[in-house]
């Protein structure tokens, strides 16, 4: 048997009511919450849920990839073959990059190349697929302008729930060549959706119900995550609804969230959470900040 996790310990000692944890990752740190999620971080107006109850969950969290699109154009790949061939797609914050099987990886490159060559200003003006692109400060008025020359990608997961992936998240600066930004996608046997895929989302893992929730979020201290073309942006229906147990204020009325609307049943409690600063706080300039929040 595997040793108990911090989530198991907190639940057994009755400090949390649900076996739920949330991870909110940014380039320069992030936050983790036990027993719920931090509503104040959310930028989107709806938590989307992926039902993975048909999968066997062990120490890895399995999701189903239905399709991947680049700039709205779907990759020509039979995603059903992944499960048929014994492969799976894992959502794994412990893995840095995103990994595709060799055939899917080649199709990913092909669609990116088609996007790049359609106009001169695309893909940093290179007009072709490359693993890395130089951010030329003399050529681009801002880093955002450089990023906007690349396409958005959309993953359809489980019940065709859209998970947008922006250039802000999938382009990573090279350690060996500063100023060059590379695709955070590499070839491997199975699909692994690593930390760069989860970046700038609050990702909720509900272990008892075998489901994963996600919403665009401000996970880092000095970062402004993109929400343009995010399907959750601007929606106002069923704000953060789910069925986690929460405390109610006096008289049975729901407290209001920071947006001025009524908090939906099951939304995270508004009391100030306890924060435990990780070892990275010894040198936040170099390593960033990661806070653990127990709700």
How do you describe this structure in short?
The chain is of the alpha+beta class. 15% of the residues lie in helices and 28% in strands. Strand 1 and strand 2 form a beta hairpin.
Polypeptide structure, described:
The structure is a single chain. The protein is α+β, with helices and mostly antiparallel strands. About 15% of the residues lie in helices and about 30% in strands. The chain has helices spanning about 5-10, 80-85, 100-115, 145, 165-170, 195-200, 285, and strands spanning about 20-25, 30-35, 50, 60-65, 65-70, 75, 90, 100, 130-135, 155, 160-165, 170-175, 180-185, 185, 190-195, 200-205, 210-215, 275, 290-295. Strands 3-17-16-1-2-19-18 form a seven-stranded mixed β-sheet. A hairpin with a 2-residue loop joins strand 1 and strand 2 (about 30-35). Residues about 235-290 have low confidence and may be disordered.
- Tell me the helix content: 10-25%
SSE pattern, N- to C-terminal: HEEEEEEHEEHEHEEHEEEEHEEEHE
Strand order of the largest sheet: 3-17-16-1-2-19-18
Continuous helix count: 7
What is the percentage of strand-forming residues? 25-35%
Mean pLDDT: 77
Give a short account of the largest sheet: 7 strands, mixed
What oligomeric state do the depicted chains represent? single chain
Radius of gyration: 20 Å
Distance between the termini: 27 Å
Structural class: alpha+beta
Shape designation: globular
The parts where pLDDT drops under 50 for at least 5 residues are 234-290
The overall strand count is 19
């Amino acid at each position: 048997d595997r040793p108990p996790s911090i989530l198991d310990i907190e639940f057994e000692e009755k400090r949390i009511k649900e076996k739920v944890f949330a991870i909110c990752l940014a380039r320069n740190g992030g936050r983790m919450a036990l027993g719920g999620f931090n509503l104040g971080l959310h930028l989107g107006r709806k938590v989307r849920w992926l039902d993975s109850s048909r999968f066997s969950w062990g120490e890895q969290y399995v999701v189903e990839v239905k399709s991947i699109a680049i700039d709205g154009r779907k990759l020509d790949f039979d995603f059903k073959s992944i499960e048929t061939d014994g492969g799976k797609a894992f959502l794994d914050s412990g893995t840095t990059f995103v990994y595709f099987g060799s055939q899917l990886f080649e199709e990913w490159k092909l669609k990116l190349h088609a996007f790049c060559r359609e106009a001169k200003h695309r893909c940093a003006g290179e007009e072709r697929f490359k693993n890395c692109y130089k951010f030329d400060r003399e050529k681009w008025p801002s880093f955002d302008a450089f990023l906007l020359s690349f396409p958005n990608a959309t993953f359809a997961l489980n019940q065709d729930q859209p998970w947008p992936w922006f250039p802000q998240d999938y382009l990573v600066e090279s350690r060996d060549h500063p100023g060059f930004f590379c695709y955070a996608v590499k070839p491997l046997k199975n699909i692994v959706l690593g930390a760069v895929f989860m970046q700038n989302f609050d990702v909720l893992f509900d272990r008892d119900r075998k489901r994963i929730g996600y919403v665009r979020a401000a996970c880092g201290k000095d970062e402004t995550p993109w929400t343009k073309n995010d399907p959750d942006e601007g929606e106002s229906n069923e704000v953060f609804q789910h069925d986690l147990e929460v405390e109610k204020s006096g008289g049975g009325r729901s407290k209001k969230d920071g947006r001025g609307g009524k908090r939906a049943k099951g939304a995270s409690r508004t009391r100030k959470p306890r924060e435990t600063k990780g070892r990275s706080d010894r040198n936040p300039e170099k390593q960033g900040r990661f806070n653990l929040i127990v709700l």
